[in-house]
Design a protein that fits this description.
Blueprint (H helix, E strand, L loop, with lengths): L1 H40 L4 H37 L2 H7 L4 H42 L7 E2 L2 E6 L5 E8 L4 E10 L5 E13 L2 E13 L2 E12 L6 H4 L2 E2 L7 H13 L5 H12 L3 H16 L5 H27 L5 H21 L10
Antiparallel strand pairs: 1-8, 2-3, 3-4, 4-5, 5-6, 6-7
Length: 366
């Protein structure tokens, strides 16, 4: 029995490696023809072009893992069924679960490897890839992004800043509002200024006013043309480079969410991105659970192409629902956890249902 399980496992892994290698190759070829002109126009060295695509492989491998698991499961089981090996295994007393357990186990391991890659490998390779393309090829000063418009955050001294725009080159702010909170009541002081500029280790605010508050309300209003205030923020705090989402590890995404929450920012979109990155690798397990009963059942009614077609249709249905769920989450209709994990749970339940109804003669029992 153990020998047969190893046989199924090795067969699945062989097909999976061929499938994922083929999908990565197709992706790289398409992307190469889209970007090679830009490399050539900029006279980029060949080593940069090669390095760019080498660094891109971990991202593509993780992205293509669920599709590769689906195809590898279908081809493996369809091949076993076509050569009557599956029937022979069942005749030896091995259950369907026992035969297909190596495939499910391998899909779980693949999902965990993709998750580990997203945490430790992909952020580093994506950063190097973006550095080559955006900095060395396109000649940007930095390939990162500095947030310059509509800044809103909580400072080190717990003051709440609202800034319409920030000029990192001039260390200048436009449309500044600073709210000083009080533990006993809401806001004790509010500073409004048309602009502020950093000079001699201080912020100099221009054309503004200061309002003082107590529990009863407004106490006083003082206008000024130019004035400096003791605040904790410096230009470097405003000029933090924001990494691209693909350059962040899961821990960095979580830390960023916690920081933005402390600054009073809306973090719903970031929670969706985090849960999507956590749930996406496990699509491999979901598609494997779906492909096993569909492949065995559809192989009774047609050949390999019919079997592949049925499973691809189910895969497309899952992809559509997953993308729709994420979109509804971004729109605020779904909670981030439901948006990212809901389709996985739904289709996992469907996969178990199909496994439990394996004895049905219908291609899709209802």
């Amino acid at each position: 029995m153990m020998i047969l399980k190893k046989y199924v496992l090795f067969m699945f892994l062989k097909v999976y490696l061929l499938t994922v290698g083929g999908l990565i190759g197709i992706y790289l070829i398409i992307d190469f023809f889209e970007r090679v002109d830009e490399f050539m126009v900029k006279d980029a060295p060949l080593i940069d072009l090669v390095s760019y695509y080498v660094y891109k492989i971990p991202f593509i491998a993780g992205y293509m893992a669920p599709q590769s698991v689906l195809l590898a499961t279908v081809i493996t089981l369809a091949s076993l069924a076509r050569q009557n090996e599956f029937t022979a295994m069942k005749a030896c007393g091995i259950s369907v679960t026992g035969i297909t357990f190596p495939i499910i186990g391998a899909s779980v391991v693949i999902a965990l490897l993709v998750l580990a890659s997203r945490e430790y490998l992909a952020p580093i390779t994506n950063q190097k890839m973006n550095y080559i393309f955006y900095s060395k090829v396109r000649g940007n000063v930095t390939y990162g992004k500095i947030e310059k418009k509509n800044l809103w955050f909580k400072a080190k001294d717990h003051a709440i800043w609202s800034v319409n725009s920030f000029d990192p080159e001039k260390s200048a702010l436009q449309g500044v509002i600073i709210l000083m909170p009080d533990e006993d009541f809401g806001i004790r002081q509010r500073i409004d200024a048309r602009s502020a500029i950093w000079s001699v280790n201080k912020w100099y605010f221009s054309d503004g006013y200061i309002r003082q508050f107590n529990k009863e309300g407004l106490v006083s209003t003082e206008f000024f043309e130019s004035r400096s205030f003791p605040v904790s923020e410096i230009p470097k705090d405003f000029a933090k480079i924001i990494k691209r989402p693909k350059e962040l590890s899961l821990r960095e995404m979580y830390a960023t969410i916690q920081l933005h929450a402390q600054e009073g920012k809306d973090t719903s979109q970031e929670w969706i991105d985090l849960h999507r990155n956590l749930s996406y690798p496990f699509i491999s397990v979901v598609l494997a659970l779906l492909a096993i009963p569909l492949s065995l059942r559809s192989s009774r009614h047609g050949g390999l192409l019919f079997c592949v077609g049925v499973n691809l249709a189910m895969g497309f249905a899952f992809s559509f629902l997953y993308a729709l769920s994420i979109s509804l989450g971004r729109g605020g209709t779904f909670d981030p956890i439901l948006a990212a994990w809901g389709p996985n749970l739904l289709f996992t339940s469907l996969g178990f249902y199909l496994l439990l109804t394996m004895d049905s003669e219908k291609a899709f029992p209802i």
